[in-house]
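note to self — DONT lose this again. spent like an hour looking for the file last time. sequence + predicted structure for the chain T wanted, 443 res
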Amino acid sequence: MRIIIPLLLISFLVTAHEFGHFLLAKTNGIGVLEFSVGMGPRLLTFKKGETRYSLKLIPFGGSCAMAGEPDGYDPEEAEDSLFTRFPEEKYFQNKSVWARISVIVAGPLFNFILAFVLSLIVIANVGINPAKVYLVREGSHAEKAGILEGDIVRSIDGKKIGIGRDIELVNLGVSYAGRETVPVVVERAGEKVTLQIDPNRTAYMLGISYYANDDPAQITITIGDPGDTSSRAGLRDGDIITAIEGVEIASGAQMHAYLTEHPLDGSPVSVSFTHNGTPREAVNIPEVRTVTDLGFEASYYREPGSFGQVVSGSFKEVGYWMRYVLRSLRMLVTGKLSARNISGPVGIVSVVDDIVDQSSPGGLSAVILTLLNFATMLSANLGVMNLLPIPALDGGRLLFLLIEAVRGKPVPPEKEGLVHTVGMVLLLVLAVLVLFSDVLKLL
């Protein structure tokens, strides 16, 4: 069951993507040979109208085979009565360039629409996420600068803040080291106030980074050079903290609360964690570090919202995940994010397993909402990745169609086909590397 859930989740997201292609193909009069859910041999198949609909054995992915596409018709099944032979005017490549563009864009668009719907469900149940300050650390530079609990953060260092979690996204991979102050604009009693905060803080640290939200307390980065305090303790990226000094930690928010109530003073700290699902114990000796820290928390505040606020919050949520994917890609390209942070299907299975384990104490509703939130991120991720101008993906095909729209004639099919073939080979190589990395994480 632990494997079936993530497979069904991925299949659901891919099917939504393919349904976008299917719907716009039908709208533009393009013949659809087959719309299938899953992969492999057909378990159930029937024909309605011109199109064959199939449920396949492996619950992973789906497809929309259009007339005229190179992979849109299997010669071995040419005589299958459930397949329709379409006239050439219904072939994909014989439609106008704008019709073809709409079909290609529809796949990623439907992923964004699905992410929005999932966000509506989650936010309606757990509340909106305004960037409202809920904690100002005593003695911090934020307190000295005049930040107050209840302030709404509108921008940090000139970067707009839409929802609370944008604060961590804005600060992700950004160093304020050497800066005397960072401007923070807050809204207070309906007026905007600009405050200057000294971002430098010296304190004992465990040498790890994590998100202080309701998700499991997963280590996103082990801070410092190999051999630092976290590495010596045996902690690695992707490990999940389950207890500190014997106190159970069920989420990043609980970990943050514990460390706030029990400031580190250099004494050894016993840490319980799971590494790829295997329980482990370690002793972490905190070290003094100078870090950049604004001294307040406003990322994970939740409160009930009106219908309009829930809808608006859902749009902002999808926008947040789109920015999150793009920021992560930029950090990956610039080397600020390790390739170990990339996960494929195997990694997703492991993450879903952890999500179920960590959220199950809150009951079935907590598990479902946490999975829906994860699915929101995956759906937005799938939409963004497919719009990137990468050969063999929707974005690569879209690029050639835009070139055709500008030139007034298509790129020669043999040249476009060569580019997509090379792109497909590179994607397959990347898939193997990601699979290998996922397997290593399980060891």
